[in-house]
Specification:
By secondary structure, the chain is of the alpha/beta class. It is 52% helix and 13% strand. Strand 7, helix 12 and strand 8 form a beta-alpha-beta unit. It is globular and about 55 Å long.
Length: 418
């Protein structure tokens, strides 16, 4: 009798394996063994998809290595900082700062250029701009925002745009306490500049001669859309921090998955960072910055970014030579996100770069360098000639990187011949 009961139990378990999903739909219970097999099936399916995606991504990346390597040759992102130091923020958080000066020293009459990087990036994102501006004779200051790059991990409750504004003030106070300033901020770095203006308006009024807001937003709208529109964007804004926080508790597992799935990671970074062909070197350089940021840090900053609204603070830039720079194909902060800056700051110049994504300074470095140098020169000329910047008409221009188009066409033609 016992053997028969055992046989019936096994038979029932076999039936559960076959009807597990149906039983779940009817509200029935599935044993741990059944759930394990169902999970195994899902896992195998996911692994198959991931493997197929990885193979496809590998093919794309191998083609990219062969085709677009000339767009960013080996060593192009190498740089030796003139000076590295630590600036302690007002709450005691150590911030990593680098300072470059032109050969022979900086002209005291020229402004110091202060760069603030974006969310999940680091000061390394400005590598090509720092080189160009130092070569043009300017002193350059770059810093890693708290919990990013080489700056120290800060308490979670300090991951706010307001705190970043105070951090920028600490950096300026320590390494550029005197003389004219040019502020340049990308994405979250532009928000940091607005926060600085809100909390330290006298600094902007007295010392800032030019400001560049690159791929950023004054706020007042849902920030996290990822190109999916406002409806899905709001959902991402609510769920994103919790999802990242949970993943952050498994950072080691995520890091392992990164090493296995580098090709897929490259495709994702490419899609959301760029809108034109770039080299594999550029994608890996960008991915290492983004994915080098702990997931917990990503989670901590998202809420503050998503409710960011510094439109009132922009009035402090009245009289400051202002550049607003966007990529036409930016999925994270498209050009319309920057319209408020142009409307609020008199005389602001809005430049939209065709075929450019969010990481525009690595995708179209020559165009960005040219625009920044032109901005600084306009500011210097306005100061020398007493030009009232606020009376200048607002200008909006669309720029195409023709030099890069030619390089891409040349690379494609060469690849076909090969």
């Amino acid at each position: 009798m016992g053997r028969r009961r055992r046989h019936d139990q096994l038979r029932g378990r076999d039936q559960a394996w076959c009807t597990g999903p149906a039983r779940l739909r009817r509200g029935g219970r599935v044993s741990p063994a059944n759930r394990g097999l169902i999970g195994l099936g899902v896992g195998l399916a996911a692994a198959g998809v991931a493997t197929a995606a990885g193979v496809a991504a590998g093919r794309v990346n191998r083609d990219r290595v062969a085709r677009y390597a000339a767009l960013a040759p080996e060593g192009v992102y190498a740089v030796v900082p003139g000076k590295e130091l630590v600036v302690v923020a007002d709450d005691g958080t150590p911030l990593h700062v680098e300072v470059d000066e032109p050969t022979g020293g900086a002209d005291p009459g020229k402004p110091t250029i202060v760069f603030s990087h974006g969310y999940t990036l680091s000061l390394r994102s400005w590598v090509l701009q720092r080189k160009a501006l130092v070569e043009a004779g300017y002193r350059v200051v770059l810093w890693d925002q708290r919990s990013h790059g080489e700056s120290e991990r800060a308490p979670a409750d300090t991951a706010t745009i307001d705190q970043l504004g105070r951090d920028l003030h600490s950096v300026i106070d320590e390494v550029a306490p005197e003389g004219p300033l040019v502020l340049v901020g990308h994405s979250m770095g532009g928000m940091t500049m607005m926060s600085l203006a809100e909390q330290f308006p006298e600094l902007v009024r007295d010392r800032v001669v030019a400001a560049a807001f690159v791929a950023t937003s004054a706020g007042g709208q849902n920030m996290v859309t990822l190109g999916f529109g406002q409806f899905l964007g709001r959902l991402l804004g609510r769920l994103g921090p919790r999802f990242l926080a949970r993943l952050g508790t498994r950072q080691q597992l995520v890091d392992t998955a990164r090493r296995v799935g580098r090709d897929i990671e490259d495709l994702i970074v490419d899609h959301y960072s760029f809108a034109s062909p770039v080299s594999r070197n550029t994608i890996r350089y960008t991915a290492d910055m983004i994915m080098g940021t702990p997931l917990a840090v990503m989670s901590e900053f998202l809420p503050s970014i998503n409710v960011h609204d510094k439109r009132a603070a922009l009035k402090q830039f009245n009289g400051v030579e202002t550049l607003v720079l966007n990529g036409s194909g930016d999925l994270l902060t498209p050009p319309d996100h920057s319209e408020a800056i142009v409307q609020i700051v008199p005389g602001a110049e809005h430049v939209v770069v065709e075929e450019a994504g969010h990481i525009i300074m690595l995708e179209h470095p020559d165009v960005v360098n040219e625009q920044l140098l032109s901005l600084v020169e306009r500011a210097e000329r306005a100061a020398a000639e007493g030009i009232a910047v606020s009376r200048k008409p607002r200008v909006r221009r669309t720029v195409t990187d023709l030099a890069k188009r030619r390089e891409v066409a040349k690379a494609r033609k060469s690849r076909r011949r090969g």
